[in-house]
Amino acid sequence: MMPPVRLLYGAGLAAALLLPTAVPAQAALPSRVPAADGKKGQELPGMPSALDPEADDVVCTPASREKAEKQDWSRQRLDLDRLHRHSTGEGVTVALIATGVDPGAAGLKGRVTAPGAAGDDCVGHGTFLAGLIAGTGGDSPRLAGVAPGARILALRGTDRRGRASSALVVEALREATEAKAGVIAVTVALPRQDPALSGAVAEARRAGAVVIAAATPDPPSRGADEVPSRTYWPAGEPGVLSVADMLPGGARPDGSLPTEGIDVAAPGAGVVSGGPRGEGHYLGGGVPVATAYAAGAAAAVRAVHPDDSPEDVVRRLTATAYPADIPQLDAYAAVTTVLGDPAASVGVERPAEPVNVRETSAADRATGRATLFVLLGSAGVLAVLWAGFALSRARARGWRPAGTATE
């Protein structure tokens, strides 16, 4: 039989070897590709941003049979439970330029206008994004969007398979301007600047719309690291709020396309929302998801500050963002923070406006707990190892104090 001291020593050594490898798995960040729910192992189907362009037949994204069991990290990050006590975006129309939106989708019924082909969302991505902007969550109210009191004007910026088109985006921008939308969210990113696109954006801003756009398109499945940094449109147009996606820790996902001029980052991985068919949920991610969250925040701001100009709304969203390499959207702070008069600061050096810094996400808390667990566990293991070592030496000396001469 193994002596108790050796058994204790062996157990401590095993714990020391296993502990560092066990904890990172708990604290790992969600990948950009929709993945399993890390806490309970529940899996939800992924929501694609486009369908296979090479397929002979168009097969629409099927209905999900699964429902999320809890609020995801992104809604905790944006502090939506507290935000909704101050603003739900009531009275604001958000024009969503994406793959279309199903007007009868769960959590959106009665609040979506979808002219023409925009009511046919075969991909499902536009409906997913609409839920993040203005969904009520249906029978899962904690999965409501940022501005569940807002209305959605669904417009197509893609074909039925989800392929972006400059001509469609220009047409959609003009329709949104004519409809007097308070916020316009362009969730597709185009590789080339177009005079018609520039004109449509400028016209929308003159009409009083806050224009928000994806900083980049979704990266290609291969070779993303070889794509040079460039500006995408209409995010690169003057006055447009350019939005990128981020992980719970605040970093952009691996493989993100490089670009300049990003104004804010918002949650864009492992995000839960509904689709156009059925009442189940999906997991999605990417820059369009982050753009939808920023658009919802803009709607919440416009509802509380209806007299603010588009420039004022953009300034509010950026000035109250959590400070980082890329400022991180803080929807609650954007609505509730009192900002100074920008005109009063002309020619005067003033400190930056205060930012509401707070605990931001369950994922961050989980990471902190995991780190604490590592430190405490490591200390415990070292104590066990030292005790085992000391007991072994004492036993070898016949339990005499150290330094006692043997006879």
Map the helices and strands:
Blueprint: H1 4-27, H2 73-77, H3 80-83, E1 93-98, E2 112-113, H4 125-134, E3 151-156, H5 166-178, E4 183-186, H6 195-206, E5 210-214, E6 241-246, E7 264-267, E8 271-274, E9 281-284, H7 287-304, H8 310-319, H9 331-336, H10 362-396
Parallel strand pairs: 1-3, 1-4, 2-3, 4-5, 5-6, 6-7
Antiparallel strand pairs: 8-9
Helix pairs in contact: 1-10, 4-7, 5-6, 7-8
Signal peptide: 1-27
GO molecular function: serine-type endopeptidase activity
GO biological process, one term: proteolysis
Fill in the keyword field for this structure.
2 domains; two-stranded antiparallel ribbon; transmembrane helix; alpha/beta; 7-stranded parallel sheet; 34% helix; 10 helices
Short description:
One of its GO terms (molecular function) is serine-type endopeptidase activity. This protein is of the alpha/beta class. The chain has helices spanning 4-27, 73-77, 80-83, 125-134, 166-178, 195-206, 287-304, 310-319, 331-336, 362-396; strands at 93-98, 112-113, 151-156, 183-186, 210-214, 241-246, 264-267, 271-274, 281-284.
Describe, in plain words, how this protein is organized in 3D.
Belongs to the peptidase S8 family. The longest helix has 35 residues. It is built from 10 helices and 9 strands. With 407 residues, the chain is of the alpha/beta class. A hairpin with a 6-residue loop joins strand 8 and strand 9. It is globular and about 55 Å long. The chain folds into 2 domains: 62 residues; 273 residues, Rossmann fold, CATH 3.40.50.
